[in-house]
């Protein structure tokens, strides 16, 4: 049924801030960390069922979304501007794009077994669009299903936003719709700590470039009971209390390594790069509501040798990598040579990503971001997911609705995925694209 879904764009309009940006805020500097990230959009799609006890007309919901978006943009004024020369944002109140769409299906049919290609169509723009570097910084798509269910797809330029920034904005937008938008104060101080560099309007040599290749993305869900069993399996003397993210990362890394080795017949040095929110790790700390790319990456590797590592040993290496990151990275981000240190750091990452003798897996986690609490006035989302583009060996982890499991999107080459998705060790703990509702009976109102 999901395969037959059609999504029709009904209208597209520009939403401007409800109040003009003051003259003294017309130029917003990117931080050095913003300058060095890839030109892509950070996406998120939130699904809301219809509420049979309080039927809200599509027009009313759409009006509420647009009005609150306009008000939220006044507080997040850089999002209504445009990036100039990878140096600053001209805060000219050009606005954000709002797209309204109709879906000729029931939300329950889509959530039975989510089609990840259709999930991308619920976004207002392609994740890898170059517009993220010079065009609109924020685009929103409200897709209304026949049953009254709603999908809100948000794309925010990675040049200004990491995952924390994206979730902070959506929370503020929702709180604004409830009349509570004043409760969160965005912090725009990142560029004062990490001033932008002058790269002569060219993409800096140290910038990370994402490899765009043909690959397959599939969804694997680790529910609460399986999650507890997995954490018990990877517990060791060096990691006595593994986190959900560590446990799932270790298992996926191990199974992906094995698949790559089998499909290619080549043993390569295998490495994981995991993104880390640095807001609370640097000195002095940034507020959690700080806007920008306040993120670092720790690495762990499994060298080529006669010893075959298992998931428990890989989790131990992940923990060691995180400990070393916490000890060393904050020091790199302070002092007089912060510009050189950050550029060198990103250059190292870029070099690793470009090497053919390393099998690099990039992990990003949005667990514990509180995204299932985002309420625009018609209840909390029934499902939240992050459509990912066409980047090979990319893994994105997000909470399950219950909060005790992990929803993982895994992007691998076709050859590797064919082996990975059949790995008995993986399938002992993960389900391949299960129904979002789980074993409970779904409500007819969806």
TrEMBL record:
<dbReference type="GO" id="GO:0016746">
    <property type="term" value="F:acyltransferase activity"/>
</dbReference>
<keyword id="KW-0808">Transferase</keyword>
<comment type="similarity">
    <text>Belongs to the plant acyltransferase family.</text>
</comment>
<dbReference type="InterPro" id="IPR023213">
    <property type="entry name" value="CAT-like_dom_sf"/>
</dbReference>
<protein>
    <submittedName>
        <fullName>BAHD acyltransferase At5g47980-like</fullName>
    </submittedName>
</protein>
<keyword id="KW-0012">Acyltransferase</keyword>
<dbReference type="Pfam" id="PF02458">
    <property type="entry name" value="Transferase"/>
</dbReference>
């Amino acid at each position: 049924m999901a395969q037959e879904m059609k999504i029709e764009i009904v209208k597209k309009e520009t939403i401007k801030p409800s109040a003009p940006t003051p003259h003294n805020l017309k130029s917003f500097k990117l931080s050095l960390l913003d300058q060095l990230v890839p030109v892509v959009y950070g996406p998120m799609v939130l699904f809301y069922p219809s509420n049979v006890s309080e039927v809200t007309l599509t027009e009313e919901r759409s009006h509420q979304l647009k009005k609150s978006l306009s008000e939220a943009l006044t507080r997040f004024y850089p999002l209504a501007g445009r990036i100039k020369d990878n140096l600053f944002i001209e805060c000219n109140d050009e606005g954000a794009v709002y797209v309204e769409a109709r879906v000729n299906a029931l939300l329950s049919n889509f959530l039975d077994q989510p089609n990840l290609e259709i999930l991308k169509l619920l976004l207002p723009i392609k994740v890898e669009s170059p517009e993220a570097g010079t065009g609109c910084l924020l685009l929103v798509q409200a897709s209304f299903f026949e049953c009254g269910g709603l999908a809100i797809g948000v794309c925010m330029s990675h040049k200004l936003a990491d995952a924390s920034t994206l979730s902070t904005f959506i929370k503020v937008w929702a709180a604004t719709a409830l009349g509570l938008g004043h409760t969160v104060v965005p912090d725009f101080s990142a560029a004062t700590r990490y001033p932008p560099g002058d790269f002569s309007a060219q993409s800096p040599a140290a910038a990370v470039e994402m490899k765009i290749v043909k690959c397959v993305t599939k969804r694997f869900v680790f529910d609460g009971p399986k999650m507890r069993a997995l954490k018990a399996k990877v517990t060791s003397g060096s990691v006595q209390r593994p986190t959900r993210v560590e446990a799932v990362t270790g298992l996926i890394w191990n199974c992906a390594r094995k698949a790559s080795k089998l499909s290619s017949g080549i043993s390569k040095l295998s490495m994981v790069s995991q993104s880390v929110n640095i807001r609370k790790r640097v000195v002095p700390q940034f507020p959690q509501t700080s806007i920008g790319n306040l993120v670092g990456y720790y690495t762990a590797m499994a060298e080529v040798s006669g010893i075959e590592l298992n998931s428990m040993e890989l989790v131990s290496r992940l923990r060691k990598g995180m400990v070393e990151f916490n000890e060393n990275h904050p020091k790199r981000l302070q002092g007089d040579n912060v510009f050189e240190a950050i550029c060198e750091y990103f250059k190292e990452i870029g070099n690793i990503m470009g090497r053919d003798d390393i099998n690099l897996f990039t992990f990003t986690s949005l667990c514990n971001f509180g995204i299932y609490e985002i309420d625009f006035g018609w209840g909390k989302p029934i499902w939240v997911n992050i459509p990912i583009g066409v980047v090979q060996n990319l893994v994105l982890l997000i909470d399950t609705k219950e909060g005790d499991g992990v929803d993982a999107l895994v992007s691998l080459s076709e050859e590797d995925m064919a082996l990975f998705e059949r790995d008995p060790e993986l399938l002992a703990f993960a389900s391949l694209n299960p129904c979002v509702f789980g074993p409970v009976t779904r409500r007819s109102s969806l």
